[in-house]
Amino acid sequence: MIDGPIPKEHPGGSANPMNSDAYKLERLATQLSKEGKWDEAVMALKKAQSLGADLGTRQVKYLQRAGRYEEALAELDALLRAARADIPRLMRGKPTEEQGEALASSLCRLYTDGALIARRQKDAARELEFSRIASEQLETMKRLQPINEERRKNVRLVLEKNKNNKPLYYQLLKMFYPSREN
């Protein structure tokens, strides 16, 4: 049960993030999953998440393995909604193409993992749908990557050209790399 001992601390000391309770619970969840104790592993992950752990789709996969497919789909849906809301907020001030590439990357990963759990569940229709959407997101990424790479290259050139003019250089830095707080 989860109320029992948490795996031993990493020798790196308490400042090491691998010593956090969330990390220890994630390690416990991994151990429980290896033992086939999926429900207990899910509980450990939920506790880790409540402590701030970013689990990605790990909890979705564990829920499916625990025989809780509908719950897994609901968790996946929550992750998809969060990605659609968080990425534009986190990348505020960045060019639309960079936001689009980041969102497409995140959605591609989530839908690919969704297709995996659907395949394990033998839900062919949902696997096909998730795979199709993942492929669309991958194509979006491929389309936006060269645009963003060209922009980043141009930004580097402009900054390099103006590195000796400190006031202009810092003004350009602020323009090209706005802070998230603005």
Rg calculated over all Cα atoms: 21 Å
Question: How many helical elements?
Answer: 7
Could you give the order of the helices and strands?
HHHHHHH
Pick out the low-confidence regions.
5-15
Mean pLDDT, as a whole number?
85
Count up the domains: 2
How helix-rich are the residues, as a percent range?
over 70%
Distance between the termini: 46 Å
* Beta-strand residue percentage: under 5%
Structural category: mainly alpha
Largest sheet: none
Report the strand count. Answer: 0
Shape: elongated
Describe the fold and architecture.
This protein folds into two domains: 1-55, no CATH class; 56-176. The N and C termini lie far apart (46 Å). Helix 3 packs parallel to helix 5 and helix 4 (69-90) packs antiparallel against helix 5. The chain has 182 residues and is mainly alpha-helical. 26% of the residues are buried. The protein has helices at residues 21-34, 38-50, 58-65, 69-90, 96-120, 124-161, 166-176.
Short description:
With 182 residues, the protein is mainly alpha-helical.
Topology:
Blueprint: H1 21-34, H2 38-50, H3 58-65, H4 69-90, H5 96-120, H6 124-161, H7 166-176
From the structure above, extract its key features:
72% helix; 2 domains; 182 residues; single chain; mainly alpha
